[in-house]
Amino acid sequence: MDVRRILVPVSGGEADRQAIELACLVGRRCHAQVRVVHIIEVARTLPLDANLRQEVQKGETILERVEETVSELDYEVESDLLQAREVGPAIVEEAGERQADLIIMGLPLKRRFGEYSLGRTGPYVLKNAPCRVWLCREPGQASQ
Amino acid sequence: MWIARVRSSRTTRESPDRSHVPTVVIGWRRRPGDRVIRPRIRQHRLRRVLGTSALYGIGYGNVGSSIYYALGLTALAAAGATPVALALAGLFFVCTALTYSEGMAAFPEAGGSAVFARHAFNELVAFIAGWSLMLGYVVAISISAFTIPAYLGYFVPALKESLPLGIVVAMGVVAGLTVLNVIGVRESAFVSVLAALLDLVTQVTLVVLGFLLLLEPERLWRNMVDYWPDTTQFLYGISVAMVAYVGLESVAQVAGEARAPGRRLPQAMGLVVASVLVIYGGVSLVALSAMTPAELSTTWATDPVAGIAASMPAEWLRATLAPLVAILAASILLIATNAGILGVSRLAFSMSQHQHLPGLLSRVHPRFRTPHVAIVACSLGAVGVLVPGFGGGQVFRDLGALYGFGALLAFCLAHASILALRLQRPELARPFRLGVSLPFRGRRLPVTALVGLVGTGLIWLVVVVEQPYSRGVGLAWLAVGLLVYVVYRRVNRLPLLRPAPAAARPSPLAPLPPGERGRGG
User: Fold this and answer.
1) B388, B401 in Cβ contact below 8 A?
2) Average pLDDT score over residue span A98-125
3) Which residues of chain B lie closer than 8 angstroms to A12, CB-CB?
4) A126 inside domain
5) Is residue A60 part of a domain?
6) Closest CA to B72 of B226, B313, B244, B326
7) Which residue of B has its CA nearest to A87?
């Protein structure tokens, strides 16, 4: 498998760690560059460049945590904080612009009406991404 | 836009004896205990994803939805000259769209005329442009909401027949959308494209059916000649017809979200202009073939498109089209009302961040992450301008004129800014440049901007002179705004004409204060 650039979108959930670990593992094998992004979703009632201090602070904290994880794994990543209207299209655009060969996403264990739900972002990225997409679901029982 | 968040290098492994070893040495293999200097590359960027189709969707969704009330409003003033008034207003619309294309391509930032005025003149003029635009948005919300019950009158006639009931429903619509926007219900860009598509399909269908089944050149000519207004009313009619095109600003408000703005914004503008001119021309000709101007400006004033559907010759066609138009028009107007709330809250937030208005308006709700104060304040304004309707009178006509007052002033300032920029900053990179121009003091001034400035300026003057309501309310709005601006800037010791210093104006470009940084910041 020829992978040169890996994109890992993180949201601060439990599944992020698995995605990061997997990205570092693959990255080490393939000598690939790993880029971690956290995307701040901006409501349509705000300008895209609105200064959302709390969100930025939260994003910084998430990326700091990722870097700690990466440091434990003895690997290097680039981290990036983005502001966008929607997470899904932002990931797809970022992957296209950065010419990523692989997107590794962590998915939370989310239930809707008692059923496991992939949410909005995962399916969008699976459908529209210009490269391979791997999803890591956080541990737990998906169906009750 | 790259934001300065690149941090200094950080040590991840401590080992003094190997501290001099750089990570880039070829052949060197890191071992446990080695010290590695790792530069942290971190940027805070804006991800822009809107392409031409999304921009067109936003533009047409706003401009195209105006036909559901603009036709009736124009007929109230221009009577038999309605198609001519719409066509002449369309000429100024083309000029304005071209001006916006040059401005937006040069400054792809949210704010439209306020942004152009900031670059061309100063903060005070930018404030006047933004504040005028805000009036336009507030009234646009009211008009769109006001005409929803009129269209739904097909199902519940009382909604159309009773003015107080219609106003209460309109207020309810604004209140409901306000709550949804404060809570922050997601609306994808796809909704804008879908609404525009729905809008376009409905209108094209009506125009095609109208041309096939209703258009009678002789009747159209008779309706135009018999009901031709006097010159003052005609000029006023042109000013009211400009209402149809005010949604143009909506594209400018999302200019900062456009991908390759220098190319895509002018493309989207061109498509919006072409579609709007064709549809508006067709709908107005069909309407005057189907109804007399007297009917159009009375029975069908608030729901003129429903009037076209009700005039279809075949019973089965009327029975099919009338409820369909009622549902589609009400849905499209609901989306347009919501678009108005989104636009005005963004504008209020942006003006507050530029220190034009108190910081309260840029407060973001900690839980919902929406500018709740700005949304509620602007919605209250939209509800407020509907209140005079309870006392009878011509609330619909007055709203139309007030809408024109704010938007035309913003358009005038946009034209003036583009002309001023041509004189002051000829070297400015303009990815889209207006072609036909006249020489002036060694510079080139675009003819369309000159025509637009004179045209929209004259029409604005007609509104001010001819419409006591819009004159009173509009000028009072400007006076209150200027008072707030001056007092706010003086109290906070900010310059009146120059931008607020970076320290006073929070911007995502500025690094966060140390106390507000995340861990390790």
Assistant:
1) no
2) 88
3) none
4) yes
5) yes
6) B244
7) B47
Domains (ranges, CATH) in chain B?
52-427+438-491 (1.20.1740.10)
Please report, in angstroms and rounded to a whole number, the separation of the first and last CA atoms in chain A: 37
A41, A46, A54: best mutation site toward chain B, by most B Cβ within 10 Å? A46
What's the rounded Cα separation, in Å, for the pair B49 and B257?
Answer: 6
The SS3 call for residue A137 is strand
Q: β-strands B37-38, A102-107: how paired?
A: unpaired
Q: Cα angle at B169 between B164 and B171, to 5 degrees?
A: 95
For residue B309 the two structure tokens come to 């559907």
Let me know the angle formed at the C-alpha of A17 by A11 and A22, rounded to the nearest 5 degrees: 115
Domain of A74, CATH number, reads 3.40.50.620
- What is the secondary structure of A105-126 as a DSSP string? EEE--EEETTEEE-TTHHHHHH
What pLDDT score does A142 carry?
Answer: 61
For B184-240, write each residue's pLDDT tens digit.
776 656 666 777 788 888 889 989 999 999 888 898 999 999 999 998 888 888 888
A142 within a domain of the structure (yes/no): no
Number of domains in chain A: 1
- Residue reference for tokens 């005609």: B234
Which site among A44, A78, A85, A127 would you substitute to test the B interface, given the most B Cβ atoms closer than 10 Å to its Cβ? Answer: A44
Domain that holds residue A58: 5-137
- The DSSP secondary-structure symbol of B509 reads T
Q: Does B49 touch chain A (CB under 8 A)?
A: yes
- For residue A92, being part of any structural domain is answered with yes
